[in-house]
Design a protein that fits this description.
- The protein has 697 residues and is α/β, with parallel strands linked by helices.
- The protein has two domains: 243 residues, no CATH class; 311 residues, 3-Layer(aba) Sandwich (Alkaline Phosphatase, subunit A), CATH 3.40.720.
- The protein has 24 helices and 14 strands.
- Strand 11 and strand 12 form a beta hairpin.
- Helix 4 packs antiparallel against helix 7.
- The relative contact order is 0.12.
Length: 697
């Protein structure tokens, strides 16, 4: 204690580094990350730099400021770690500045989020608590020392000898402080050098990691990997840095796959003259990168399913928080009917995302990966997508509309949907549906179906309709009483499931009845045979603890993102029912439907694939870059692959898969941030007009 009191800078540094590092170590423990790992060493070095810098600054001030500052920093790191853990286990994603715009909406279920905290999360506070104990002990010992000092008789006057001794001691202390500052300053440089070494040294990298550490440090676009490799504390700094100073240029590996494509009667052939001319006259490096990437992607050929629904109406229904529990004949007969009488994919997933509902709705509409640490749907609400699902049907002469029975409080659909190409968007007010400002009370989806059908069934005469409906009744919370959470509880009282799960099932019952109401209305208007229903879910019901939800399932939810398994159904009475086994997500909806309706579309512009194509790559990509095939599951966060059987991949095959996945995500993100498709649409029209004019002359 005496040594630390004498060497103030060292004391502050040690308190900070011990507290910071303990918080991060327990964070890794709770998150099930490897502790004995190069990443842990990298995290220590980054925290070491922070502790040294703060130590040098804080030491310039008095003891009161020192204690307040050290305690504040220690608790801030520990509490932030708790919040990141809780966010991940409650919402499936880490907090980021890119999702700050949702803060107002999130406060509505803040209490439920706080209630989800588990005691183990608070182990990240062990470091701050130790710092607190140290300062308490220090104050007690200092007080005792002062009392003891006051009892010692002091000389009546300070002699010249004593004065010289005090001056010598002060001079020595000043010299010691200077040396300490030089040493700690040097340690900052050494730590920075070692930290950089951990980024570039080949032996310190995992060759199977999706994103390399240099790129992640430059742009922590994948929070899961960034948090694992740099720790929660350094991630927030990198996240803030990238938010304030975005990375302007992004590259991708381009494989020229189409040069040797064999042309058959089923081929889709495109004249890229205008596109190439646009690219030749483009100076923006990102646009050139995107042009080259998209032009050289595979062109999916036609197949036996092409055009099977041509000319029919279509209704897309994105169901709020619906998982595979909805496929139950006893409780949800309407969804069960569609599942058993249509095309149904048993291996469909809705990977969690930042702002999952909005981002996953966007992916369903444009088949692009959203930015993982951003509420992409809102942040880029003014983007235009000529290749969106709405515009494809607009180009085919359809009457396109979209509907949602809530306000723009979460997502700015009244701006986004028209920019996507919806000819008219109807929110809760336009639909004249009563709603509550209270978070737990959501409107009925039955009323949504009634109000929406009144509009799309009475559109322009002679035009088929395309409608997009986003439901809301089954939204959380499930842990508190609510109208629809309690409405059908009596049906589930004998299930012995946790009350939160029962309330969820009660809300699902209203959703199922809404589907039944839609079927009744279509049949009543003689439009059921002429209408295709496409149903998928935005995400699983993340307002329920996984341990409680698990009681309703016979397979494990906490492995390989199995909790993200959701229904995906395409239904029309004319279909010969089929259960499909392809691994799929909302990314494949648009290209699949575009093929079924024989729409005029370029498969290269979509990151998803036509599920009926013979060239379909049976690989599912999750939001964090993890992927799954029939052989195994690649965990991008940890950089490891788990195999299901004896079939395996070589390291080169895994690296190749990772590169392709990384490129799809990067190019999607770049296309969004640069409003690329708006640029492409205008550019293609310009150079096509130039070509047409020159041909006429």
């Amino acid at each position: 204690m005496k040594f630390l009191n004498k060497h103030k800078i060292i004391k502050i540094y040690l308190l900070l580094i011990i507290s910071f590092f303990l918080s991060e170590v327990f964070f890794r423990f709770v998150m099930d990350y490897k502790i004995i790992d190069w990443a842990t060493f990298r995290i220590f070095l980054s925290l070491n730099v922070l502790a040294l810098i703060f130590g040098l600054i804080i030491s310039l001030f008095n003891k009161v400021f020192e204690r307040i500052s050290v305690l504040f920093l220690s608790y801030a790191v520990g509490i932030y770690a708790i919040c990141q853990i809780a966010s991940f286990f409650y919402l499936g994603v880490f907090l980021s500045f890119g999702t700050a715009g949702q803060a107002g909406a999130i406060t509505e279920y803040l209490g439920l989020w706080l209630a989800s905290f588990k005691p183990v999360y608070f182990t990240t506070m062990i470091g701050p608590v130790l710092v607190t104990i140290y300062y308490i002990v220090e104050m007690i010992l200092n007080r005792k020392a002062k009392i003891a000092e006051s009892l010692i008789k002091k000389p009546k006057r300070i002699t010249k000898k004593m004065k010289l001794a005090l001056e010598a001691e002060a001079k020595s202390l000043k010299k010691t402080k200077l040396i300490e500052r030089i040493v700690l300053g040097s340690l900052i440089l050494v730590s920075c050098g070692l930290f950089y070494t951990t980024l570039v040294c080949k032996k310190m990298q995992n060759e199977l990691q999706l994103e390399n550490n240099v790129d992640l440090f430059r742009n922590p676009s994948n929070p899961n990997i960034a948090v694992n490799q740099f720790g929660a504390t350094t991630f927030v700094i990198l996240d803030l840095k990238t938010t304030l100073f975005p990375v302007k240029e992004v590259s991708a590996s381009i494989n020229y796959k189409n040069n040797n494509q064999v042309i058959t009667d089923m081929s889709r052939i495109f004249d890229d003259t205008a596109w190439q001319e646009l690219n030749d006259n483009t100076t923006n490096k990102n646009y050139k990168t995107l042009n080259n990437y998209f032009m050289n992607r595979n062109i999916t050929p036609k197949n036996e399913y092409t055009g099977m629904f041509e000319g029919k109406n279509v209704i897309f229904i994105m169901m709020e928080s619906v998982n595979t529990l909805a496929i139950n004949e006893e409780y949800f007969p309407n969804l069960y009917k569609l599942y058993n009488e249509g095309y149904a994919w048993d291996n469909a997933y809705s990977p969690r995302n930042a702002c999952s509902t909005g981002n996953n709705e966007m992916s369903g509409m444009v088949s692009l990966y959203t930015i993982y640490r951003s509420c992409t749907y809102n942040n880029y609400k003014n983007n235009k997508y000529f290749e969106s699902v709405f515009n494809l049907f607009n180009n085919k002469g359809y009457y396109t509309t979209s509907y949602h029975n809530y306000t723009d409080g979460y997502y700015y659909r009244s701006t986004i949907h028209p920019n996507m190409g919806s000819s008219a968007y109807y929110g809760v007010s336009k639909l004249k549906i009563k709603y509550s400002a209270e978070y737990k009370e959501w409107p009925s989806d039955i009323l949504l179906m009634q109000k929406a059908s009144d509009i799309f069934l009475n559109g322009p005469e002679g035009k088929p309709f395309m409608a997009w409906i986003t439901t809301v009744t089954s939204h959380q919370p499930y842990t508190v009483s609510s109208e629809f959470g309690d409405k059908y509880l009596s049906l589930y009282k004998d299930t012995k499931l946790p009350i939160a799960v029962q309330r969820y099932l009660s809300k699902l019952t209203e959703v199922d009845k809404a589907i039944g109401e839609l079927l009744r209305i279509l049949e009543e208007h003689n439009q059921l045979d002429n209408t295709v229903l496409v149903l998928y879910a935005d995400h699983y019901p993340y307002g329920i603890a996984t341990s409680q939800l698990q009681k309703a399932f016979d397979y494990k939810l906490d492995v390989n993102y199995e909790i993200d398994r959701t229904p995906f159904i395409i239904y029309n009475p004319s279909i010969t029912p089929e259960k499909k086994t392809e691994l799929t997500s909302y990314m494949n909806i648009l290209p699949t439907v575009a093929n079924l309706f024989n729409l005029d579309y370029d498969p290269r512009l979509y990151m998803g694939q036509d599920l009926f194509s013979e060239t379909f790559n049976n690989r599912l990509v999750f939001a964090d870059g993890s992927w799954q095939t029939e052989k195994g599951f690649y965990d991008a966060t940890k950089g490891v692959i788990k195999y299901y059987g004896s079939e395996t991949y070589t390291s080169d095959e895994i690296i190749s898969n990772n590169q392709e996945v990384k490129d799809m995500i990067r190019m999607s993100n770049l296309a969004v941030t640069s409003d690329y498709f708006n640029y492409l649409d205008k550019g293609l029209k310009k150079y096509q007009n130039v070509t047409n004019n020159s041909q006429e002359q």
